[in-house]
Amino acid sequence: MSKKLLSLLFALFVISFGFFDTEQHVSANSINDIPSKYENEINYLIQKEIVEGFPDNTFKPKNDVSREEAATMIGRSLGYNDEKQDTTFSDVPSSSYASGYIASATQNNIITGYPEGVFKPKQTITRGEMAVMISKSFNLQKESDQSFSDVSKSHKYFEYIKEVASSGVAAGYPDGGFKPNKEITREEFSLFVARSLNSEYRVQQESSEDAGNSEVIDEQVVTADYLNVRKGPSTNYGIVGSLSTGSAVSVYEENGNWAYISKGNVKGWVSQSYLIDKPQSSHIIALDPGHGGSDPGASANGLIEKNVVLDVSLTAREYLEDAGIDVAMTRQTDWYPSLDGRVKIAQDKKADAFVSVHANAFGESANGVETFYSASGLSDRAYRSMKLAEFINDRLYKEMDMTDRGVKEAGFRVIKANPLPSVLTEIGFLTNDEDVKKLKTDHYREAAARAIALGVVDYYNWKEE
């Protein structure tokens, strides 16, 4: 990590710790989770005293951003008065740390509330709402032909999204969409503000020119949270787009540690350090969303296990299919296959491995992820099951930023009475406040899905060695 970083993201994120009004400074050398590929943008914000650091030595890049946090960061960027004051919103009292910024931004028509006269300061903002705030706050490009498959001209945020995209503040996704309803993370919002203030950090919207080699030489999968795609094979070249974790790409040419790739309409050079091989052989993985129908599984804190794991499993299927792996679902809707019936579905669909997805429940203090395998039966099946569990669990606790409870042996019927290499993974505790806070968000459910998919890819690559 660069020694230039002096402190990180206190102003925007500290509210959850309850000490926003107390100055805290953290040495950059002690920060342990800042994404190194974004250090230039974040250092720029630090130098402008827009963001500072967490006193627990973390950046927490994957946590969501609330409306009051976003208003604070925008307010600091525009030099608004931070003095606490009355606002026009019934749920933002003058005692709120963000009241000055919210009042100023309201007066300048940058933010608005809801019809009932509230601001909903704790509500997480979306990419579409971000586009509105950024567009109204900064002098960005006004005209562009930029369009996205999921943002029609009648969309309420169409003009704002077009503006931030055409200005290079925010790029779309490889599938051609913008995902306006997707909740935004701390690192994402920091990038958008840095790009708005400094054009040097903005992304280029046009695709790079072909590298001259039209023949695909390899198929690989992205492992980085956000992988920049550049015009040439080094960080000295401009950015033409980005790819997210789990995206499968075609490789056309290699130059040192760089590869020229394509994914949909995104083409350019990426670092091979953030790519892994796409399994070459054909595979069928059975995904088993636990419980279902009359069996809800665990229920706590407003979540029902059967619904959470079905959502995660269906998303994991998309990632796996993108990586060229066929998926056999034991259920795709809210019904209950018997335990033995789940195994039979996997066998009938000729799956070669089995992953059952669950969410945990115990006491309030229990937290984290864990993955089980069964050591019963043939030793080769047990060993492959253990390896599959290790690959998935290693990805899962990192993607979810949760406690690693490890890989364990257990006798759950769907993995014990199963001739296939099989595991049962627990993606967090519905009874733990911190775990459930994440499992309620689309961001972390998608992270769990990516982790499961990438763990399966790791397993098949290991199997093919």
UniProtKB/TrEMBL annotation:
One of its GO terms (molecular function) is N-acetylmuramoyl-L-alanine amidase activity. Residues 1-20 form the signal peptide. It comes from the Bacteria. Residues 25-84, 85-148, 149-207 form the SLH domain. Its EC number is 3.5.1.28. It is an enzyme of class 3 (hydrolase). Residues 217-279 form the SH3b domain. Keywords: Cell wall biogenesis/degradation, Hydrolase, Signal. PANTHER family: N-ACETYLMURAMOYL-L-ALANINE AMIDASE, N-ACETYLMURAMOYL-L-ALANINE AMIDASE AMIC. This is N-acetylmuramoyl-L-alanine amidase.
